[in-house]
Amino acid sequence: MACSIDNLDIEEEFSGDELEKDEEVKDVVMTGPADLSACKRKSKKISRQNSKENVVATTGFVHGPRSWKNSRRSRNGFGRGLPKKRGGGGKGVWGLPGSEMMEAYEDINDPNYDNENLSNGDIELKAVIPEISLEDIKKKCAPIVLEYFENGDTHEAAISFEDNIPHNVRDLLVQYVIEVAMDHKPSHREMTSVLISDLYGHIFTESDITKGFENLLANLTDLIIDIPDASTVLGNFMARAIADDCIPPKFLKIMKDKSDSQPFLDAIDRADTLFSMKHGLVRLHNVWGVGGALRPVKYLTRQMSLLLQEYMSSGDIAEAIRCVRSLEVPHFHHELVYEAIVMALEANSAVREEALCCLLKALSDAIIVTPDQMEHGFFRVYDDLSDISMDVPLAYIILDRFVERCFKQGFLTEDIMKKLPSRGRKRFVSEGDQQFIKNHRIS
């Protein structure tokens, strides 16, 4: 009985599965009381491992389900949670990014074997900067330059040039920017001179600007084909660059002896004349004039009045048109029409009226003065006619005659004719009344 009781106690200590698996324990139980000491020893906890071994005896660790069999996590319960070999190990993976470049192919039969291995020490590596031509610079810089002409932001242009143009071809950039400006208006040339001055020391160096001018002087013969006054314009650019301390004054003396071409010498002489004239450095800041939008109204009015006076003395319509365009104030052309009509009223001469009418017709045909600007100019005269008639008593009669002449030329609309003001002639005395008053005074 004692043995049977002890046998029951031993059975309670072991779990069902463990009791079935431990054959040695069964043998001990079936023995007598003499072996009870061996029966009462607790067996080690048996747990199944997710490894190649069937049974591994461990203490204090319980594994998860069998689905973790292929898990790559650390099996000791510790670890940083990082993939092995930083993602470069394991079956069916490509390895670390760029690791294929670090491999050394030493197998001669390997198709990737490199005969000129860098480890031999007989190969020298140098940085190669690709060459860029003027045509490539034109493609990259054309939108940048045109955008700068629109907004005038030199800082934005500097960032774009820095990102797109290498340092070794900045002289070609200077050349291209000046070529574009030579084919544009004086205001754009002034903006180009400001751009070169602002970017000097940051994007452009003195050697870049000097080489750019040398390239332009060498290609001046070809530039004259498209830009007849290229020598004068280039001379202005060089003189302005000297005034802005972008190139030294000795540049002109050095370049004089390098060519005998007449356009070349004309450009050098133009720059030398501007630089050596009295107060030349001060005047060179306005070598391109002041932009139309920046000029005061009084200045523009004065310039238009001088323009008309010069035209009346010379009769050169082409020169007058060139002067109007150089002012670059298309929104203010109504002032030119106003000044021309007032000049015709004050002259009271059929010859002057005909000349001014021809000038307005030429400006209208060339679409320099638009129809709305023409109407605005005439309507301004209509509004001020009462004041004008105080200085010119026959203003109404002369204006009627001048408007009729312009309408026959075909550049005035019927609206202007319909709105022409007229002052009713007051009846003072008739012919018979005049004789009556004379006789009355004698009597």
Account of the 3D structure:
- Residues 136-257, 299-422 form the MI domain.
- It comes from Nicrophorus vespilloides.
- With 443 residues, the protein is mainly α.
- The protein folds into 3 domains: 1-74, no CATH class; 134-286, Serine Threonine Protein Phosphatase 5, Tetratricopeptide repeat, CATH 1.25.40.180; 295-418, Alpha Horseshoe (Serine Threonine Protein Phosphatase 5, Tetratricopeptide repeat).
- The chain contains 24 helices and no strands.
- The longest helix is centred in the first third of the chain and has 18 residues, at 134-151.
- Residues 1-39 and 44-59 have low confidence and may be disordered.
Average pLDDT over all residues: 77
Helices, by number, come to 24
Terminal CA distance reads 186 Å
Report the CATH topology name of the largest domain: Serine Threonine Protein Phosphatase 5, Tetratricopeptide repeat
Write down the overall geometry: elongated
Our estimate of the beta-strand percent is: under 5%
Q: Extract low-pLDDT stretches.
A: 1-39, 44-59
Reading the helices and strands in chain order gives: HHHHHHHHHHHHHHHHHHHHHHHH
Largest sheet: none
- Structural class computed from helices and strand pairing: mainly alpha
**What is the CATH C-level name of the largest domain?**
Mainly Alpha
CATH architecture level-2 label of the largest domain: Alpha Horseshoe
